[in-house]
């Protein structure tokens, strides 16, 4: 049984913390130790140095961080902190979800925390706007839902933004890339292939995408488009763009499609879409077909062979018929890299080539042919189609 994890901070008297928080003021930004010490003195309370340090940490978490969830976000390796209810707090450190052993009080306390986090993200969260997506000041991605949409006061999901993404060398060393594929991945970037990274939720699509972007030459301009900023590529010239939801009056929304069109006017050497999840796939395919080569994007799909159906479904949202999707995608996308997660391990599981079902005739349906597969444990990958694999290496391998 997994041992519950608790924040590594001393117990702080709730009344004292509330008094200091009130004196510091909710709009004062992140307080330093001197500000906490002054607020403590004004309250007439006296603490030792250790207790004062813990109080300052708790005050910072309350005013500029995630409150009682902040210590969990700071645990090594944590990628997600999920709150289903006051006594249902979970974390993910890469090996699956485990209980955090944290008691948040009552449902009203969880709702109050969700509303405060939404405020830190510059968003409104209440009965009129019960769902919010945003980003905390430290970059942590926030998704929160309150009643009546959520049944237990509020549901909070936090995704940690890692400041430094893994390099391709690090992924190879960690066993996430099979032997013999590193040369191909480097060649795809160097020779400006248009690449889709597919996979399910939490499989490491963004991690692989950031690693590939780290291979882009330093003199190239990379423009990234995301719904919420997650990419942290090791590249000196990145222009990040993120969507914006409409306000409560229904105005001010900026969609992924809007941002893709805007990015194309920014003279990008590489256009990167963090995740295609709607009609913006039309703009991405058009961009890849009009001289913007070397583009990269991610896509939710459970297998490399499922990518065509996923592209067709998304493009249909933009009014594209299937034959148009097949024509555009087969001409625009060169390679699909599929990632999987199994027993806590994330790895590149397949390499696919995009084409048509009838290459010799009228073209046929859009297909992705798996050239090679890997189960994440075998010493070498399995070549699924030798002719396709050799052609792939001949064209793209560095």
Automatic annotation (TrEMBL):
Gene3D superfamilies associated with the record: 3.30.450.380, P-loop containing nucleotide triphosphate hydrolases (3.40.50.300)
Stretches assigned to the Bacterial type II secretion system protein E domain: 63-337
Pfam families in UniProt: T2SSE
InterPro entries: P-loop_NTPase (IPR027417), T2SS/T4SS_dom (IPR001482), T4SS_GSP_E_ATPase (IPR050921), TadA-like_ATPase (IPR022399)
Residues making up the signal peptide according to the UniProt record: none
Single GO MF annotation: ATP hydrolysis activity
Superkingdom per UniProt: Bacteria
Recorded family membership: Belongs to the GSP E family.
Name of the molecule in the record: Secretion system protein E
Organism of origin: Xylanimonas oleitrophica
């Amino acid at each position: 049984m997994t041992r519950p994890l608790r924040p590594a901070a001393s117990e702080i008297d709730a009344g004292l913390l509330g008094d200091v928080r009130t004196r510091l003021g909710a709009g004062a930004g992140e307080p330093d130790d001197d500000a906490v010490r002054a607020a403590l003195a004004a309250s007439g309370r006296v603490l030792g140095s250790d207790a004062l340090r813990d109080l300052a940490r708790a005050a910072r978490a309350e005013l500029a961080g995630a409150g009682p969830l902040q210590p969990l976000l700071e645990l090594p390796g944590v990628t997600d902190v999920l709150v289903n209810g006051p006594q249902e707090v979970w974390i993910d450190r890469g090996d699956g979800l485990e209980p955090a052993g944290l008691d948040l009080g009552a449902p009203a306390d969880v709702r109050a925390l969700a509303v405060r986090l939404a405020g830190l993200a510059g968003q409104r969260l209440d009965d009129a706007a019960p769902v919010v997506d945003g980003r905390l000041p430290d970059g942590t991605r926030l998704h929160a839902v309150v009643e009546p949409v959520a049944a237990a006061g509020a549901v909070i999901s936090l995704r940690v933004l890692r400041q430094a993404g893994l390099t391709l060398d690090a992924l190879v060393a960690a066993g996430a890339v099979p032997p013999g594929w590193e040369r191909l991945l480097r060649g795809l970037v160097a020779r400006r292939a248009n690449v889709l990274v597919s996979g399910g939720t939490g499989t490491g699509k963004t991690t692989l995408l950031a690693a590939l972007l780290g291979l882009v030459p330093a003199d190239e301009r990379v423009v990234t488009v995301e719904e919420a900023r997650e990419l942290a590529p090791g590249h000196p010239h990145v222009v990040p763009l993120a969507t914006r939801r409409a306000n409560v009056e229904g105005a001010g929304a900026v969609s992924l499609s809007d941002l893709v069109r805007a990015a194309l006017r920014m003279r990008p050497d590489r256009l990167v879409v963090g995740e295609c999840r709607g009609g913006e796939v039309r703009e991405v395919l058009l961009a890849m077909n009009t001289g913007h080569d070397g583009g990269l994007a991610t896509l939710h799909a459970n297998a490399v062979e499922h990518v065509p159906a996923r592209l067709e479904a998304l493009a249909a949202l933009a009014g594209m018929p299937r034959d148009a999707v097949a024509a555009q995608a087969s001409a625009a996308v060169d390679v699909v890299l599929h990632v999987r997660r199994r027993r806590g391990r994330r790895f590149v599981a397949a390499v696919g080539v995009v084409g048509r079902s009838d290459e010799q005739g009228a073209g046929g349906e859009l297909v992705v042919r798996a050239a090679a597969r890997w189960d994440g444990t075998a010493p070498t990958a399995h070549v699924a189609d030798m002719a396709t694999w050799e052609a792939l290496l001949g064209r793209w391998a560095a």
